[in-house]
Specification:
By secondary structure, the chain is an alpha+beta fold. It contains two helices and eight strands, in the order E-E-H-E-H-E-E-E-E-E. A hairpin with a 4-residue loop joins strand 4 and strand 5.
Length: 133
């Protein structure tokens, strides 16, 4: 996690875009709570379609924030599949929030487009993402 005034910024790398999205979801979980304390008792799926990868990344992370805040779902494991048309299908394994075992690390409002960058690198793909606190 990189500190930024009133925001939190993460940088994520992956060998391809699908792994980048999975790792960004894992990094978001780590910001919000301790994933090591989460059991894989429930499954959720997320399906999104957006041709612009920047828009898709923000929508993906905001969907995860929705699952956390509204459905009180905490994920431990994420598997992401994507195609060239911008279709994302993700399988999440986790459980509902249990206040006796899970505690919040930081409250985040949303993933933003501010300073958002997805770049191809010799190793694969990297992204810089800013979250509103």
């Amino acid at each position: 996690m990189l500190e930024h005034t009133a925001d939190h910024r993460i940088e994520v790398k992956g060998r391809d875009v699908a792994q980048l999205f999975a790792r960004s979801g894992a990094a978001l979980a780590d910001l919000l709570y301790d994933p090591a304390l989460v059991e894989e008792a429930l499954r959720r799926s997320v399906r999104l379609h957006e041709k612009d990868p920047d828009v898709l990344l923000v929508r993906w992370l905001n969907e995860l924030l929705y699952l956390r805040e509204v459905e009180e779902f905490l994920w431990k494991r994420i598997e992401v599949e994507m195609d060239e048309e911008g279709r994302l299908e993700a399988a999440l394994a986790g459980e509902r929030l249990d206040p006796t075992r899970h505690s919040a690390r930081v409250g985040l409002k949303a993933a933003t487009y501010h300073q958002l960058r997805i770049e191809r690198t010799p190793e694969g793909v990297s992204a810089r993402i800013l979250f509103d606190v």
